[in-house]
Design a protein that fits this description.
Elements lengths: L2 E4 L5 H14 L11 H13 L4 E6 L2 E10 L9 E8 L8 H15 L4 E7 L4 H9 L3 E12 L2 E11 L11
Parallel strand pairs: 4-5
Antiparallel strand pairs: 1-2, 2-3, 3-4, 5-7, 6-7
Helix pairs in contact: 1-2
């Protein structure tokens, strides 16, 4: 059973390697060139600086997946809405690690008072990610056709959304 915990600086190299695999081989990320380890460290620092969760899953001391929440958009009216990101080591997919990470991420974001979570899923054919999000109450919110071009073809983006805590039933705090 994987252990979940907040990420540390020591995890950045493993996080960067997992992400680099997805950039090079898949459509979950629309990046073309994997970012450097230093850039991943900078991005992680930005997430943590905002007080948002950046979690890792590990098996026998090895990081096998990670998840984090980031602001959906920078403008103040979006302050209660987050976007989730989840990436799993290729040797550990389909083992329930994504489920554990997403469940923990949702709980951490609800505890901080956030009200909406958006999933922006690369490739409308990404059934595992769409199914994972659907299992946690995300609903289809739209599809942007052919907004990315990667691996010689046009790629869609699927938008999914779920409420956190009281959702839009009451105004946000602050």
């Amino acid at each position: 059973m994987p252990a979940l915990r907040p990420s540390t600086d020591a995890d950045v190299r493993a996080i960067a390697a997992i992400y680099a695999h997805h950039v090079r081989t898949g459509l979950a990320s629309f990046e073309i060139v994997p970012p450097t380890t230093e850039e991943i460290a900078r991005r992680r620092h930005e997430v943590l600086k905002r007080g948002l969760p950046f979690l890792v899953a590990e098996v026998a001391g090895t990081v096998v997946g990670y998840a984090y929440a980031s602001p959906y958009r920078p403008r103040p009216a979006y302050r209660s809405t987050l976007e989730d990101s989840i990436y799993i080591h290729p040797d550990y997919t389909r083992k329930g690690i994504g489920r554990l990470l997403l469940q923990a991420l949702i709980s951490a974001c609800e505890a901080k008072g956030y009200r909406q979570m958006v999933a922006i899923i690369g490739d409308s054919g990404n059934a595992p990610s769409i199914g994972l999000h659907r299992a946690f109450g995300f609903e289809h919110a739209g599809k942007l056709r052919s907004v990315g071009f990667k691996f010689g073809r046009w790629v869609d983006t699927v938008l999914m959304q779920r409420s956190l805590g009281p959702g839009d039933g009451t105004p946000p705090q602050g």
